[in-house]
Each structure stands twice: as C-alpha cells, then as structure tokens.
Design goal:
Elements (H helix, E strand, L loop, with lengths): L6 E4 L2 H7 L1 H11 L4 E4 L2 E5 L6 E3 L22 E7 L20 H6 L1 H12 L3 E7 L40 H17 L5 E5 L8 H4 L5 H10 L3 H15 L5 H9 L3 H8 L6 H25 L6 E6 L4 H5 L3 H4 L5 E6 L3 H16 L5 H12 L26 H15 L4 E6 L4 H14 L4 E4 L6 H11 L3
Parallel strand pairs: 1-2, 1-11, 2-6, 6-7, 7-8, 8-9, 9-10, 10-11
Antiparallel strand pairs: 3-5, 4-5
Helix pairs in contact: 1-2, 2-18, 5-11, 8-11, 9-10, 9-15, 14-15, 16-17, 17-18
Length: 473
C-alpha cells in the first residue's frame, strides 16, 4: 500500500484542550494517517451569547445550519471566547495602531498547551504549522478581529460595504501590514520549532458581490501611486461595471454569460468598454504579491528563513477577483493551498444572485442562477431552476458541486501557479459519504497532497475515511 505524499489536518486549539493532546494526535496518526497538522496561537473556553462568538461560525447567517461533528466540551454548537496562547513581546508592537490582546488567566492556565501540542506532534514525526489571519488584527482567528474604520476596504464610491462576511482590512493599509509583520516576528520567536506559517485570507475574500469591488480607499490610492497604476481610471471602470450590475442588467446579458467560455469573455460581452478593469485586476494582484513578499521578508529578518510560508487561497475563477495571482504569490510562498470549500460555493452565488435580483427586478431568476453556476464553474449537478436552489447545505446534505468542477479548479490552479506546488484544501463539513467523494477528488487532483479543514468536522468515521483514502494502492 502506498501512502499519499502529504495529508495535513487543521486542528484548532480548542480540540486538544477538550480531547487532550494525545487523544487528538492518536486520531490523526492512527486513523487519518496524517503527515502534518496546523493549529493557531490562541486558547478557548466556553462563554455566553453576550460575551462570546458562536462556534462553529455562522457565515453571515447562511451557515447557521452548521454544527460540529466532534462535540466541543460536550456540545455541537456553543458560544466561546479566546485569549492568546503566549505572552506577546510588546516591544515589537510599540507605536503601532494595532496592539495584541493581553494575556489573561486563560492564557496562564491553558496557553502552554499550544507549545506542548507542537512538541508532541513533532515527536510523532508530523510537520507542524501555525495558521494566522493575513489582514484581521489581532490575527489569531478569523472571527476575533476588526480593523479600524479607515483601514477597511472601500467600494468605488468610497463607501464601506454595509454587509460583510469577512472582516479583512485593506491589504494596502500600512497599519495592518505593520501589525501582521510584528505578529509574524513574535510567533517565529515564540514558537521556533514550527515548520512554517500558513496565512489565511491573504486576498480580498469574494464572498459577497460588494466584496468583489474592493479596494478604492485612500490606502489603495496611495499604493496605486507608488506602483504606477492609474487609480482614477481603475475606479471609473469598476464604478461603471458596478452601475451596470445594479440597474442595467438584462436577460440578454445573462444569456451571454451562459454562452461565454470564461468570466473574462462574459465581462467583455456585457461591458465592451471595460477601460480600467484589467488594470484594476493587475493592481489587486500586485497588492496581494507585495503583502506576501512583506511576510516572507519579515520571517527571514526574524531568523526564520528555514520556516515555510504557505498561502490559503480561493480557487479559480474566484482568485482573479480576490487578487490571488498564484504565479506571483509563488515567488514568496513555498506552496498554495487552494480551497475546495464546496458548501460555500452555492452560498456565494446565492449572495450574488439575491443582490443582482434586487437591483434588477426585471431579470429572470432562473437565467441568473444558470449564468452564475456557469461562470463560476460549480457544474456537475443539475442546473438550478431558481436562485432558491442555491443555498448552504445542512450537515446531512451532499454539497452541490460536481467532482469534475472540483478537479478542474485544482488542475487550473496548478497550471496558473507554474512550479509552485498547489495542495487541495478540502473541507470536512458534510455527510461522510459525500466527504469521501470530495476527498478522493481533492487527492486525485493535486499531485502534491491535501489539507483537510478542520478537525471539528471530522467524526471518527471521517478520520477513518481519510486514512483509507491516504493509504490508497
């Protein structure tokens, strides 16, 4: 029997706090045949709805159906609070707008478990990584941060989107970059035995339609001037497209989208005069590239040149909208983990569709649903007859994304990344049989290996499935 080259699992600290370090590692090693593990630099405890955050995350309301497969402190959904797992070196953050959370009694009592987990995992031969947020101070976990108002990314009209799923700040903000650099220096010194850092959302996450039309704030204007981009031309092109989508969309546009071979071709059919749009796409890609080059340089300057930098990324074609040019990022990142979070895909298309329908009441919902599925390539399932057919699946429902589409996204990502290894990043949420099919697809698509997110959605049955798939002949 041959073991897959690389099988990584994301295990957030609350699970080895709840199940014990050896209990988690026994599951990863004996059942899942894992070769790597990622955790994060915080610790957690139960809280209440007034002081805490829901676990699992609610994903802007759409994910409220989500429940944990592995009970956490005996519950499949609960409210929690976190604290840093270490005592930050405040000298590294001196003079910065953003400051790290101060350690508290939870840090003192539970914080050392993160270092203990790292050492125990290494002793079993696992590679160990820390995952942090790229642009959400304090950066320990996606739900627990918020940038200041002038560090939030802006729409072409200068406003902040009213509705957001991610709390990512502007990637051009020097305040956010300086804080994340300080955090990286701190972690490299606090946890010198990790194999590397994985950065999540080092792009503009395109969960909502407005999230695609970022970033046109003052920080972005300043960055554009430094990089030689025409900010006003980019903003004008993006504003024209935004206006067309909010009041000028017709069924003929949707038919053109269903016939187009790519989102780029569809855009050219809908808005033939797209001056500034291609420049805007290149600008976002350069912002993401310089974000990564800053991370890599910071690690090197901190004496962590031996540590790997990994990037979590949206799959094609969303990566073009998010600014994640795999080839550019590959100059700084050792590898890219491309997300196959297939429960999010229909949710995202539904978010887009609802906003477009509200802004264009005359368009056909059926045509719009088919156009979105076509443009973002989640085909392989029957075409939806209406937008209501696109929704966040419950824990017991298969994800409405075809195996061919998932496979194609990883292959396309590797083609775009060139020599930089692309790893499929599968998600454990969903029924066991569907998870197995998605995991087999992910492992077959990537010749380098696979990450699975995350341990809280991996029942014992799913852990066994990972091991069986990894030990394929």
């Amino acid at each position: 029997m041959k073991l897959a080259n690389f099988v990584g699992v994301t295990v957030l600290p609350e699970y080895f706090q709840s199940e014990s370090i050896n209990g988690v590692l026994d599951n990863l090693e004996r059942k899942a045949a894992a070769t790597a593990v990622t955790t994060s630099p915080y610790v957690m405890e139960p809280a209440d709805s007034r002081t805490g955050f829901r676990e699992p995350p609610i994903d802007a309301g759409a994910g409220k159906v989500r429940l944990l497969d592995r009970p956490l402190w005996g519950r499949r959904e609960l409210w929690t609070r976190t604290a840093p797992s270490f005592r930050p070196d405040l000298r590294l953050y001196r003079g910065l707008r953003y400051q790290p959370p101060l350690p508290d009694v939870l840090t003192a009592g539970q914080g050392p478990m993160v270092e203990q987990f790292i050492q125990a995992a290494r002793s079993r031969g696992l590679k160990v990584y820390l995952q942090v947020q790229a642009a959400i101070p304090p950066g320990y976990r996606v739900q627990f941060g918020e940038p200041e108002i002038d560090d939030r990314p802006r729409l072409p009209d200068g406003s902040v989107p009213e509705r957001r799923l991610s709390s990512n700040g502007s990637l051009a903000s020097p305040h956010i970059r300086e804080y994340t650099h300080a955090l990286i220096r701190d972690l490299c010194r606090q946890y010198p035995d990790i194999h590397g850092l994985r950065v999540d959302w080092p792009e503009y996450p395109p969960y909502l339609l407005d999230s695609i039309f970022l970033d046109f704030g003052q920080h972005a204007r300043n960055a554009a001037a430094r990089m030689g981009f025409d900010f006003d031309r980019m903003r004008g092109g993006a504003a024209a497209l935004y206006r067309h989508l909010h009041g000028g969309l017709h069924d003929s546009d949707l038919i053109a989208c269903t016939e187009a071979e790519s989102p780029g071709e569809a855009l050219r059919r809908i808005v033939p005069d797209s001056a500034g749009l291609s420049e805007w796409v290149r600008f976002k890609a350069r912002l993401v590239e310089t974000l990564h080059s800053g991370f890599r340089k910071t690690m090197d300057d901190a004496g962590a040149g031996h540590m790997e930098l990994w990037s979590n990324a949206f799959p094609p074609p969303w990566n073009t909208l998010s600014g994640m040019d795999y080839r550019l990022v590959g100059r700084c990142s050792m590898a890219i983990s491309v997300k196959l979070y297939t429960m999010h895909w229909p949710m995202m298309l539904r978010f887009y569709g609802d906003q477009l329908c509200q802004a264009n009441p005359g368009v056909s919902g059926s045509l719009l649903a088919r156009a979105l599925v076509r443009l973002f390539d989640i085909s392989g399932v029957p075409a939806p007859d209406r937008l209501e057919d696109l929704y966040y699946p419950s824990p017991d429902e298969p994800h409405p994304a075809g195996a061919e589409a998932q496979h194609h996204k990883i292959v396309q990502a590797q083609h775009e990344a060139g020599e930089t290894p692309v790893y499929a990043l599968a998600h454990g949420y969903g029924p066991a049989g569907d998870f197995r099919h998605r995991l087999e697809t992910a492992m077959a698509a990537s010749r380098h290996g696979c990450w699975i997110n995350r341990y809280g959605y991996l029942s014992d049955e799913k852990l066994e499935i990972i091991g069986k798939v990894a030990r394929r002949s």
